[in-house]
Amino acid sequence: MKLPFALPKLEYDYNELEPWISEEIMELHHKKHHTTYLDNLLREVKKLKESPENLIEWVHSSPALAFNGGGHLNHTLFWASLLPSHRGGGLLRRGPLQEAIFDTFGSLEQLIDKMKVQAANLQGSGWCWLGQNENGFFITTTPNQTALSLHQGIPLLGIDLWEHAYYLQYKNMKMKYFEAIWNVINWEEIEKRFLTQKGVS
User: Fold this and answer.
1) Which of 77, 82, 111, 115 is the most buried (most CB within 10 A)?
2) Domain regions of the chain by residue span
C-alpha cells in the first residue's frame, strides 16, 4: 500500500458526517491529530538513509515510525472509509462484499456485534479492524496506532477508538460512538478493497 506523505483531502465537508460525528471532532481530528502524526513521521523519515516508498513495510521498523507511521496509515484508511449518510454512507448494497459478509457472519448486524465485542474489550486507545487474508475475514484490535502487519492480512475497515475520535461528542461512552459510526461507513470503498484483495478488478 503506497501512500503519499501528505494530509489526505477529505471527500466530504467536516459537517457532513453529522449527527453521527460532529463537525468539531472531524476538524480537530483531521487538521490537528492527523497532522501531528504526519509531521512526526516526516521528521523520522528524514533520519533514514533512504526514504520508504511503501510505508506499511517500514512502519514496524522502529517505535517512532510504528506510532507516527501507523497514525498516518490508519487515519488515511479511516477517512476514506467514511461517507455522509445522505450520500449512501452506512448502506451495504447487494454485491460480492455483502454476499461474503452474509456467508461468513450471517448478517451485517452480526458482523457489527462481533466487532463491538472486540472494541469493548480493547483497553486504552487503539483500533478495531475488519481484515481479510487467505482464510477469509478476520476481526481484531491493535493498541495505540499500531497498523495491521502484513502477515496478519489486509485491512478492509478500521474504526478509530482513540478518545480524540469521540470524546467531545460522546464523552466516556465509547460504545455509543462505535454504534453511531456505522451510519457513515463507506461500504462501496470497502468493497473495492475487498475485490482488490481477491484479485477482482
Assistant:
1) 77
2) 23-83, 96-199
Name the residue with cell 514496524: 60
Does 164 appear as a known binding residue? yes
Question: In terms of Cα–Cα distance, which of 182, 188, 133, 193 is closest to 159?
Answer: 182
Q: Is 151 annotated as a binding residue?
A: no
Does the domain at 23-83 match CATH 3.50.30.10? Answer given as no
Burial annotation 161-176 (CB, 10 A radius, 16+ → b, else e): bbeebbeebbeeebee
* CATH no. for 96-199: 3.55.40.20
d(CA 189, CA 13): 18
Q: Is 72 annotated as a binding residue?
A: no
The pTM assigned to this predicted structure is 0.91
Separation CA 85–CA 64 (nearest Å): 36
33 labelled ligand-binding: no
